[in-house]
Amino acid sequence: MSLILCLETATKSCSVSLGQNGRVLALQESLDERYSHAENLTLYIEEVCKQAKLPLQKVDAIAVSKGPGSFTGLRIGVSTAKGLCYALEKPLIAINTLEAMAVSFINQKPETRNQKHVFCPMIDARRMEVYCAVFDEYLNEIRKTSADIIDENSFADLLLKHKIIFLGDGAEKCRLKISHPNAIFINDIHPSARFMLPLAEKYFSEKKFEDLAYFEPFYLKDFVDTRPTK
Questions:
Q1: Residue 121: which of 94, 139, 102 has the closest Cα?
Q2: Can you give the CATH number for the domain in which 13 is found?
Q3: How do strand 141-149 and strand 129-135 relate by DSSP bridges?
Q4: Domain residues for 137?
Q5: What is the pLDDT of residue 222?
């Protein structure tokens, strides 16, 4: 079975896992307000290989969280993943960050799937904006990934029909604006490389690989340089 190295750098979380046969063999991660991905990512890769007692050359593929998320974090993660793929001659797998968050919650709370909730993972995108998508219990995307400014009318159409579990560090913005009884808010879910493995293994079996020469992160929005005013 496949041995896959997973890299997650789309948010404040810097996370690396090594997994095989649906099991995480080793994990290194931190949630740092300073965005210390540049310092930690390669160290974490070395550490998971050491923990698993497997050389990096043994991996069958590299999976990277493709976004949406932090511009800087995504650039670091994707450039590292592509560099490893070129050097090791391994395929690249790209995982939607929001979909991986939904997988992580469903795996931790499988009873919610039986209750036919829908899941809205959210990443804080500053001010009242979030990156979000909506998935059903089978991970079908019923609302495409978008950058939304949250107000009291956000998700009103879906809330009439479904109980929505809002996940992630963007969920608190919804809590402040949305008071519908079908809205449930879970803040303590963050992207992690450990939860990329089910999707990475699925894509590996389907040979759903990226073109190394042309693959770019899923930034969703154009970069805006916000320099401090004097």
A1: 102
A2: 3.30.420.40
A3: antiparallel
A4: 98-186
A5: 55
